[in-house]
Structures are given as C-alpha cells and as structure tokens.
C-alpha cells in the first residue's frame, strides 16, 4: 500500500508539524488555516500577536492545535528561540512555509534606501533566519518520518521585469535560486524544497506601496484580470505538502488566469 493511500484523504497532513511565517494576514493566514484543516499542528509566526491569537482560536475551535509565536523574522535570535519552542511543544517541524515578505516600489533614482533595506532585511535576511533556525529540525524529521517540506514564497517577480519593483524582484530572485540550491542539498536527505511563485494575490501586500505610479499600475490590473485569493495559494501549499514523499515540485507558478506578465 502506498503512503498516500495509507492515510485518510481528508487529513493527509495528520501528525505533521507546520511552521508558517507571515501567518497574521494574507497568504500565510489562509495557508495556516488550510494546513490545520488538513490535519497538521501549526505554529504561527508574525509580529502581530492579536491576529495570531485570533487565528489560533479559530484553529482550536475546529479541533486543531496551534502555537502562537509573536516574532520579528528579521531578529535571528528570536527566530531561533521560536524554533526551540516549536520543537519543545509540538515536536520537530517537518513543514516550513517560509512566507513572510514585504513589497515596496519606487523609481531607483528616488534612492528609497529605507525601503530597499526593509525588503532586504525581511525577504532575504528574515527568510534565511528561518532557514537557519528550522533546517536542523527538517532534516531530523525527514530522517524519522521519511519526508519534510520547506516551501519558500517567491513571486513571478523573480522571473519577470517590473519597473520600480527592482529590489523586491531581486529579493525574490534570491528566494527562487536559493530554493533550487537547497533542494539539491536537502533532497537526498528527504527534505523537499519548493519555490512558490504567485502572480497577483489580493492581500495586505499592496497596501504598503506608496509610489503613485506603482499604485496606478496595480489598480489598472484589476480592470484586466480577477486577482487570486489567499485561499487559492493556501490550497497550493496543502497540495505540495500532501504529495507522496517521492514527489518534489521544485518551482510552482500560480497566476490569475487573466494575468499576462
Ligand atoms: P501580507 O502583507 O498580507 O502578509 C505579509 C506577512 O508577513 C504578514 O503576516 C506580516 O505580519 C508578515 N511580516 C511582515 N514583516 C514581518 C517581520 N518583520 N517579521 C515577521 N513577519 C513579518 O502579504 P501576502 O500574504 O501577500 O505576502 C506573503 C508572501 O507572498 C510575501 O513573501 C510576498 O512577497 C509574497 N507574494 C505575494 C503576492 C501578492 O500579490 N500578494 C504575489 C507574489 C508573492 P506582521 O506584520 O504581523 O509581522
């Protein structure tokens, strides 16, 4: 009997321990709720504790297990302490959805160095803090249970060119290329690594953009396509993690049907 058919289809992630970063809104919140619905115990990581508490309550009301970790992902020591708490309270993590990120836009000649730094600090350094803190658990869990997952949220911006979004796009190119390398390193140890590259998704992400030209461009896209929802991406994360252990989708692009570039 295959591993996939040995567990009930409704709860393919029963017994798994999932850490979701950026769990207080958007894609992370939807994914945490979805993964919990598929049977995983979930650890919720972001800065806004009130949002995480409300989400944890919803998970528990449905019979799930949720641990709240109010942590700034750019603070390496805090992320490391959070990883220790997950291991102590839920057991070794075997699914990391490394998803927290920020998108800002400005013409390069504006020299918006504070915005550049915020994106580099979270999208690159924060993402690496999570990789560093949780990889030992993923490797241990994969050795014991046969499979573990690291899903990194990149973007179609990793592949495409969006004027004014240079630093954001470059930070996501880092995520996609890093994921390819980590997959080659960790795959032989039964840790699957995937880069998830969504197109436009309706979340709080666009709300941080201040550049008027970029805002106008975003508003214009609403007239030509129906944006994805966070639930659309949550379903994809659940799909990746529910595949048989031998299957690693390395890179997954999820676009609104009407999105051209
Ligand atoms: P949201 O703004 O809704 O979510 C971002 C999440 O990141 C929030 O939970 C936020 O929580 C968290 N976060 C921000 N700063 C920090 C920090 N310093 N430490 C810890 N957590 C932090 O946007 P999305 O859900 O859209 O974004 C999720 C990911 O998806 C991002 O990596 C984004 O780049 C990517 N993406 C999004 C697309 C879209 O169109 N929406 C398209 C392609 C990729 P808090 O503020 O509470 O800390």
Short description:
The protein is α/β, with parallel strands linked by helices. It is built from 8 helices and 9 strands.
Structure characteristics:
261 residues, alpha/beta, Rossmann fold, 7-stranded parallel β-sheet, 8 helices, globular, binds NADPH dihydro-nicotinamide-adenine-dinucleotide phosphate
How many helical stretches? 8
Q: How would you characterize the largest beta sheet?
A: 7 strands, parallel
- Strand residues, percent: 15-25%
Oligomer state equals single chain
What is the string of SSEs from the N terminus onward?
HEHEHEHEHEHEEHEHE
Verbal overview:
- It contains eight helices and nine strands.
- α5 (113-145) links the parallel β4 (95-98) and β5.
- It has a single domain, classed as NAD(P)-binding Rossmann-like Domain (Rossmann fold).
- Residues 1-5 have low confidence and may be disordered.
- The radius of gyration is 18 Å and the shape is globular.
- With 261 residues, it is of the alpha/beta class.
- Strands 3-2-1-4-5-6-9 form a seven-stranded parallel sheet, with helices on both faces. The chain has a two-stranded parallel sheet with strand order 7-8.
- It binds NADPH dihydro-nicotinamide-adenine-dinucleotide phosphate.
- NADPH dihydro-nicotinamide-adenine-dinucleotide phosphate binds at residues 21-28, 46-48, 51, 72-74, 99-103, 122, 126, 153, 155, 198, 200-201, 203-205.
């Amino acid at each position: 009997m295959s591993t996939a058919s040995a567990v009930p289809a409704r709860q393919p992630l029963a017994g798994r321990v999932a850490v979701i970063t950026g769990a207080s809104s958007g894609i992370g919140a939807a994914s945490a709720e979805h993964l919990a619905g598929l049977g995983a115990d979930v650890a919720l990581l972001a800065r806004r504790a009130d949002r995480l508490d409300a989400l944890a309550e919803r998970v528990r009301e449905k019979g799930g297990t949720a641990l709240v970790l109010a942590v700034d992902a750019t603070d390496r020591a805090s992320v490391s302490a959070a990883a220790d708490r997950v291991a102590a309270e839920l057991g070794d993590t075997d699914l990391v959805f490394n998803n927290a990120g920020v998108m800002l836009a400005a013409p390069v000649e504006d020299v918006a160095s504070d915005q550049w730094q915020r994106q580099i600090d979270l999208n690159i350094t924060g993402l690496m803090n999570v990789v560093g803190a949780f990889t030992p658990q993923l490797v241990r869990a994969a050795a014991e249970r046969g499979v573990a997952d690291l899903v990194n949220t990149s973007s179609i911006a990793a592949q495409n060119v969006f004027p004014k979004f240079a630093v954001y796009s470059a930070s996501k190119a880092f995520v996609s290329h890093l994921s390819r390398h980590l997959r080659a390193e960790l795959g032989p140890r039964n840790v699957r690594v995937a880069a998830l590259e969504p197109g436009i998704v309706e979340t709080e992400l666009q709300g941080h953009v201040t550049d008027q030209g970029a805002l106008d461009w975003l508003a214009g896209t609403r007239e030509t396509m129906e944006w994805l929802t966070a639930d659309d991406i949550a379903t994809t994360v659940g799909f990746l993690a529910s595949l048989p252990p031998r299957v690693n989708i390395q890179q997954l692009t999820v676009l609104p049907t009407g999105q051209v570039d």
